[in-house]
Design goal:
44% strand; single chain; alpha+beta; 10 strands; Lipocalin; 8-stranded antiparallel barrel
Length: 147
């Protein structure tokens, strides 16, 4: 009878220790090769002009002169609105979303961004838009130069 008690107690003790060890290793965050978070504000800063636009996955030519200017902090100028006139609005970036506030309110999903290209997705007046933009700068003579 004593042997049965000691055996049972030993098994319970060993399984408890093993369970605790398993739980400790299971809860540790796994170190994966995750890239650091993207600083979208820094990448957005500058002047962007529309290269190609899609409305509900069909190419649209009517938005040919669309442009965006981001100051990298909180102010943007864009003519993507009902009147196609330039408007200055505020914006904030949350993860990969641009939330525009002011005269025109939009939420853009940043699909891709590099140092020279930007693809935004938004919904406007019941349509899904994909805006593919290229970065540009102004040279000493005031001419637009694609970067």
């Amino acid at each position: 009878m004593k042997i049965f008690k000691w055996t049972s107690l030993s098994l319970i003790l060993i399984s408890s220790v093993l369970l605790l060890m398993y739980c400790k290793t299971e809860n540790k965050p796994k170190k994966e090769n995750t890239p650091p978070p993207v600083d979208y504000n820094a990448m957005l800063e500058g002047n962007w002009e529309l290269a190609t636009a899609y409305r509900n996955k069909e190419k649209v030519e009517s938005l040919a002169n669309t442009s965006f200017q981001f100051d990298g902090k909180e102010t943007m100028v864009s003519n993507f609105n009902a009147t196609s006139e330039e408007q200055t609005n505020t914006y904030e970036v949350e993860r990969n979303m641009i939330k525009q506030t002011g005269q025109s309110k939009f939420t853009y999903l940043i699909k891709t961004v590099t140092d020279s290209t930007l693809t935004l997705i938004t919904r406007y007046r019941g349509y899904n838009f994909e805006l593919q933009l290229t970065k540009w700068a102004v040279d000493e003579e005031g001419n637009s130069v694609v970067q």
